[in-house]
Every structure is written in C-alpha cells, then in structure tokens.
C-alpha cells in the first residue's frame, strides 16, 4: 500500500479547485482511497505523461478532471502535484 503525501502547494490548488467544483468532493475522496490502496486499479486510468511533464503520472477523477502525481516508487510514496481539468493539468 502506498502513502499519499500532500504538499502545501497541492493543498492550496485542491482547495481552490473544490471551491469551483464542490460536486466532485465525494468522487475525489474515493479516487484517493483507491489510489492509496491500489494505484494500478483500472478505474484510475493511471498513465505516465510525456514531453514537458515527463516523469509525472496522471489519474482520473472522472472523464473531465485529473490529478497529476509524482511517484516516488522506492519509498512507496505518492505525491499529488496538481488537480484540474485535462487542459488545466496538461
């Protein structure tokens, strides 16, 4: 099981995101629980990004919204770094 580690920067971004998208809070929490329990679960649609975001991964909250993640595999830590729509995050 992986450990989620939230930076102050991510917490600020998430708060701002949820001020605009309160309807996604429950779905977001479910995504985090699943991510912690099984990052490879198919419903998360985990994939590695390329280009300027090389080395970063993304999971889906739903078909429109994503969470970008930095995985520190060797320490079993997952550090969320951004949240938003597909266009906002990428």
Automatic annotation (TrEMBL):
NCBIfam families: RelE_StbE. This is Plasmid stabilization protein. Keywords: Toxin-antitoxin system. It comes from the Bacteria.
């Amino acid at each position: 099981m992986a450990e989620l580690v939230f930076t102050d920067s991510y917490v600020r971004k998430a708060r701002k995101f949820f001020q605009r998208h309160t309807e996604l809070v429950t779905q977001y929490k479910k995504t985090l629980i699943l991510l912690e329990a099984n990052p490879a679960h198919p419903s998360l649609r985990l994939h590695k990004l390329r280009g300027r975001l090389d080395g970063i991964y993304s999971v889906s909250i739903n078909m429109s919204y994503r969470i970008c993640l930095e995985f520190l595999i060797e320490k079993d830590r997952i550090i969320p770094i951004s949240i938003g729509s597909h266009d906002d995050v990428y």
